User: What shape does this take?
Amino acid sequence: MDMDQLVATWTLYLSRRARERTRADAEVNGDAAGAAAAEQALATLPVVGALDARRANAELVSRLSVQRWIALKAARAPEMLLAVIWSAPFNW
Assistant: This one.
C-alpha cells in the first residue's frame, strides 16, 4: 500500500470507532435519534477491521520513522548540534 492508502485505512478505522462510540453513548442515554444518526453515518463508511487498521498504523509509523531519520540527516550541518536538531518540533 502507498502512504495515501495507509492513511485512508487508518482514518476510516478511527472514523468508524468514533461513530460506534457515539452510537453506544446515544443508546446508553436513551437517545434513539442520536443512535439512529450514528448508525446511518456508520452505514456510509466502508468496514475496516481492527487488524487491518493496526497493520496500516504500524506501517505508517515505520515509514514516518524512516522519513524522520532522512530529514534529520538532511538537516544536520557540521556545525549543528544533534540536540538542536532533536529539539525542533515535528508537525506531522
